[in-house]
Amino acid sequence: MKKRTKLLWTGALVLSLAGCSSASSGGTDSPNVLNLSKENDVITLDSTLATDGMSFEVINMMIEGLETTDENGDIVPALAESYDVSEDGLTYTFHLRDASWSNGDPVTAADFEYAWKDAASDPTSDYAYIFGPDGACIKGASEVMGNPENKDALGVKAEDEKTFVVELERRTPYFVSLTTFPPFYPVNEKFAEEQGDQYGLSADNLLACGPFQLVDWTKGNSLKLEKNDSYWGKDDVALDEINIAIVPEPSSAALAFENGSTDYARLNSSLVDKYKDNEAYKSVLGSFLWYLQYNFDNPDLQNENLRKALAYAVDRDDLTQNVLKDGSIAAEGFVTRQLSNGPDGKDYRETADGYFLERGEDSDKIAQEAFEQAKKELGKDEITLRFLFEPSDPSKSAAEFMQSEFAKLDGLNIEMVSQEKNVRLKSQQNGDFDLVLTRWGPDYADPTTYLNVLLPGGSFNFGKYDSQAYKEALDEAANASSDEARWQALQKAEKIAMDDIAVAPIFQTGASDLLNPKVKHLVDNPVGVPFVYKYVTIEQ
């Protein structure tokens, strides 16, 4: 196993951008060159350690998994030409195509075995859990997690150079979709071990087997990728070059778009009204769920009426429509819209209950009555809570709005605590919060990608919600005899958590962007890797 250096994002340099024009169609003047402005730098290109969306985007440009997504978001073959599934649904046998790394080495089944065992067993890997019962359900994953000495117990095996076999503990309907996600990508063992703790941290210490190859990375400033001539599907890749500028301020990115130096810029709420009539403006429903997490170690927050008061105090429609204004929508539960369809072909949220949806006077009344009851039950006239949030949008705008809503509860004192994301996450891990506005993005297209977060003892259950009934409902789903029974058990589990007010879902993100109209076939994924650039063409 290669040595590991755990990295946290600490910020980026702002590029100096000059010039402006009233019209805007983006920055592509050269054929087959795409220029992007992104808020955050890549943290690591080690697919076994990466956890953030920007790192996932660039890793996906360079490396493929067994499967990938097409332009419609459907799962299609990538490094595996095909796969077989055993009759009991527990064994998957993948058959690899002829493909090579950028150094000329063939991509083999051993590259997958090495990578999966490494990611699942490394104590510093935040995504080790996804190989186990809360994710892929791979045989032996529970005993492997965090234990490198036990890594060979993981149920994966390279039978020969082109045959990769995976054994599961139980039937997992979404398993194949997970293979499109970076933690399940291959790693060239010999090369990675030679790089040691520098693997994935520069253009020189990473190999590509995907559409593009990283040729330059100036930390906090820019990345440059070129078409990978050794990629098996190179004939279907139209772009010759991708340039990424790290521009933390949305206003600077929008200026870069106006002056023609970028083809893509993400907008924040303050810029939406300015650009919403521009032909380059796009607004789509995102997949991240922002929710209020309670710390159950706080005796006051063990009171259900207090949690209920906080959950109902927030007018989610007012927040999304008049504050965020970026396409975000009010959350209806702990599972988002447009995530996955049930056996009946309908979106999960279409057939599931909605929660905390009362608006206006009804919501205010429910919140105030619950708060008065909470004070009575706790024997207090006043309650003080520390509210943790990030100082960047949309968290900052949402948290400040929520603070104003909480102020309507007579006797509630809210202390606002602003922390950068990496510090905020550490505070959550340490239980150093009362309330926190946090988010979760789906790793795969199934409700369990959200619901597993609230399992007792879960890696991201920082609020310490603990319900045996909830666990039993998810166990029921895992062992269901039919797809219909599984779906019903999943909705049952969500209802238990929402009735317990384990957390309070607030909003599902929207995304407002400027995209050069000449750029076609950019895939915007609701789950997993945010953007896929393999299919992009530029209209001349």
What does this structure look like?
With about 550 residues, the chain is an alpha+beta fold. The protein is built from 16 helices and 21 strands. It has helices at about 55-60, 110-120, 140-145, 175-180, 190-195, 250-260, 270-275, 305-315, 315-325, 350, 360-380, 395-405, 420-430, 450, 470-480, 485-500, and strands at about 35-40, 65-70, 75, 80-85, 90-95, 155-160, 165, 210-220, 220-225, 240-245, 265, 280-295, 330, 385-390, 410-420, 435-440, 505-515, 520, 525, 530, 535-540. Helix 15 (about 470-480) packs antiparallel against helix 16. The termini are far apart. The model is unreliable at about 5-25 (pLDDT under 50).
Task: State the assembly state of the protein chains.
Answer: single chain
User: Which parts are unreliable, with pLDDT below 50 for 5 consecutive residues or more?
Assistant: 3-25
| Overall average pLDDT | 92
How many E-type strands? Answer: 21
Structural class: alpha+beta
Strand content: 15-25%
Span of the ends, CA to CA: 47 Å
Q: How would the global form be characterised?
A: globular
Computed CA radius of gyration, to the nearest angstrom: 24 Å
**Share of helix among residues?**
25-40%
Biggest sheet layout? 7 strands, mixed
Number of helices: 16
Structural key phrases:
single chain; 540 residues; alpha+beta; 4-stranded mixed sheet; 28% helix
Summarize the structure.
By secondary structure, this protein is of the alpha+beta class. It is built from 16 helices and 21 strands. The strands form six sheets. Strands 11, 12, 13, 14, 15, 16 and 17 form a seven-stranded mixed sheet that branches. It has a four-stranded mixed sheet with strand order 1-10-9-8, with helices on both faces.
